[in-house]
Amino acid sequence: MSRIVIKDVKKAFDDVVVLNDFNAEFADGEFITLLGPSGCGKTTMLRMLAGFEKPTLGEIFIGDQEVSSTKTFIPPEKRDIGMVFQSYAVWPHMTVFDNVAYPLKMKHLDKNTIKTQVDEVLEIVHLSQYADRIPSQLSGGQQQRVALARALVAKPQLLLLDEPLSNLDAKLRDSMRFEIKEIQKNLGITVVYVTHDQMEAMTMSDRVIVINHGDIQQIGKPTEIYRFPANQFVADFVGKINFIRATSANGELQFKDSPQKIEYDGPLQGDVVVGIRPENMRFVKASGDLKGTLVSKFYLGDVNDCRIDIGGENLRVIAEPKSFDSYQEGDKLQLRVDEFSVFVDTGDTDQMKILT
Fold it and tell me: What is the rounded distance in angstroms from the CA atom of residue 153 to the CA atom of residue 104?
C-alpha cells in the first residue's frame, strides 16, 4: 500500500519559508506531478518525501507509516522508496547490470535473486541487450533508463522523480515521457514527479499540483488544470494564453483597450481579466465573436501561429496549418471564441502577459 498523506507541512530555512501549509493525499498507484517554476518549493517537497529534508511543521505518511513529523523521522533508506535525479548519477566504471544491481547488493541478497530481479527490470526498461555495457557506450536516454531501472529494481512502494528528463534533447524527452508512464502503469507503482515542464505534467499525470511561491495554486486532473485554471498564474503557467482586461456587466465582457466585447453569463461582475487560449479561437466567414486584422502569421508545420489586432489588443491565434495559404497579412478576419476563462482583476501586472 503506497498511499501518501501530507498534512499541514511547512518548510523554512532559517527565516525563509519555502513551503506553506502543504496538504495533499495521493492514492495507491497514482501518478502525481508537482509542477511550478524554479524555486517554488516542489523539489523541497520531494526531498521531504524522500527523507533528505525534515519538515519544519506537519506530518508525512507513506502507506500506514508516519515517516516525518515534529516527533518522528524515518531515514531515507528505511522508507522503501526509489528515486531518480536530474543527473543520471550512474557509475561510469560499472556495467549496466552492476549499476542496476547495486541496491540489491547493499541488501546482501544472494546472487540468483539479484540476477533474477535485475533481468526482470532491464526487460521492463528495454535494456536487456545492454547489460554488459558501461554508461559511456549508451545514449543519454539509455543512461536515464539505467537510473530508472536502479530505482525500480528493489520494488519500492513509492518512486520519486526529480526532473529526470531535463538533460535530454527534445526528441528523447518526448519518447521518455511515454516510456515512463507506460512502465508506471504496468507496475502499478505510486509516482511523484517534479518538473517545471507543463508538457510533461499534462502527458504523464493522473493529477497535477501547481505550486508557486511555496503555495499550492491548484490540484486537479490535467484537463481540469488546463481548461479550468483556478487563477491567472495557473492559466499562464500551463499552456499559452491571451489575457485581456475587461468590465463585466449586463451579460457582456467589454474589453478596456478595445472597442469589442463578448457575451458572458458567469457570476463575476466589475473589473475582470479574460483569458483566451490561442487554440480556442478559429477563423469564420461570418457571425464571429470578434473582428480583427491579421498582423503576422508563422507556419509551424502542424499549426498556423497568428497575431490578430482586434483594435488596441493583439491576440495570438493558433489556426489550422492549411489556413496559412488562405489568409494574408492585412486581411480583415472574424474570430469565433469557443472557450474562455474569467478572473477577478487584482491589478497584478505580472499576470498580464499578453502573448505577442
Answer: 8
